[in-house]
Specification:
By secondary structure, the protein is of the alpha+beta class. The protein has three domains: about 30-130, Tetratricopeptide repeat domain (Serine Threonine Protein Phosphatase 5, Tetratricopeptide repeat); about 140-185, Membrane-bound Lytic Murein Transglycosylase D, Chain A; about 190-315, L,D-transpeptidase catalytic domain-like (Beta Barrel). It is about 45% helix and about 20% strand. The protein is globular.
């Protein structure tokens, strides 16, 4: 009996010892092992999604890709799945969902090598969504009333005639009672970095469109908060030391559009020298490619806020 008790005690001790050792081993190893198993499983599931894609069964593929993003959010297969989901949506011209997946990709995987290209794709989608008939959170549907004009409608919603036409595919200013128009109700603002030579058009505070620009030589573009006070198409220009220069002159530097700011003598305009874009090359104004300044001009109204900064200040202190 005593011998049996000793054997049972030894057996119990052995079980406890084995359990303890197993616990210690599992505590050190499982993170990498389980991670590997997760990755392996995600790879298998992702492979199944690719098979559906090859077979043209996009709905089934999308369902599987969403499972991967949900169950394995930190894996490389989640990144690949978000890319595939965006591509599927683009093929269907579902720009809203495509933008969502690209935004999610940038948020969940901020260090991807092609982040810049993805951001550019998102900005392209921003324009496509604006120009599509699909209603979004920042737009409303307006039914044209008797006596309405595009000028009156644009004024009512603090937007531009050009933007109303762009959003609705209108080729002229003719509208009719009962016609439904998609109208932008978001607020645009402009952010300019004279160090990076970029202008970012923001929509309700979020980046919407980025443009390469030229700014003033020797940091002559003023820093601060301003506003667009007027909008003009190829106005006569007074060149310092020369006098009035007309739009058809070779010396005319304003390009296709001129938007003066609330600080005298400065504004945003086009160019007669595309090679200057991306550099500090002006007398202080903000210069854009003509196609870009026309696009910007068509979207913003008088009174649009303009913030000009120098990003070097964040790392190098005050820059004069």
């Amino acid at each position: 009996m005593k011998k049996k008790s000793i054997i049972l005690a030894i057996a119990a001790f052995s079980v406890i010892l084995i359990t303890a050792v197993s616990f210690l081993v599992l505590k050190k190893v499982p993170e990498t092992l389980l991670s590997a198993r997760k990755t392996d499983k995600a790879e298998v599931i992702y492979g199944r999604a690719e098979e559906f894609l090859k077979a043209g069964e996009y709905h089934k593929a999308a369902d599987i890709l969403l499972i991967i993003v949900s169950r394995y959010p930190d894996s490389i297969y989640a990144e690949r799945s978000l890319r595939k989901l965006a591509s599927i949506c683009l093929a269907r011209s579902d720009y809203v969902k495509a933008k969502y997946y690209y935004d999610r990709l940038l948020k969940d995987f901020p260090r991807i090598k092609d982040a810049g290209e993805i951001r550019s794709a998102v900005e392209g989608l921003n324009m496509k969504m604006m120009q599509s008939p699909v209603m979004t959170a920042d737009s409303i549907e307006y039914v044209v009333q008797p006596g309405n004009t595009l000028i009156a409608i644009a004024k009512k919603f603090n937007t531009t005639v050009e933007l109303v036409k762009m959003m609705n595919g209108l080729q002229n200013d003719i509208i009719r009672p009962g016609q439904k128009l998609k109208i932008n109700i978001s607020k645009f603002s402009i952010y300019i970095d004279r160090f990076q030579n970029i202008l970012i058009l923001r929509k309700d505070g979020e980046p919407f469109r980025t443009y390469s620009i030229a700014t003033g030589k020797d940091n002559s573009t003023p820093l601060g908060n301003f506003a667009i006070v007027d909008k003009m198409v190829r106005p006569p220009w007074t060149k310092p030391g020369v006098g009035i220069v007309l739009p058809d002159s070779d010396e005319y530097e304003l390009g296709e559009r001129w938007m003066p700011l609330s600080i005298h003598g400065y504004g945003i305009h086009g160019t007669n020298d595309d090679s200057s874009i991306g550099r500090q090359a002006t007398a202080g104004c903000v210069r854009m490619h003509n196609s870009d300044v026309i696009e910007l001009y068509d979207m913003v109204t008088k009174g649009t806020a303009v913030e000009i900064v120098d990003s070097r200040e964040k790392t190098e202190g005050k820059v004069e």
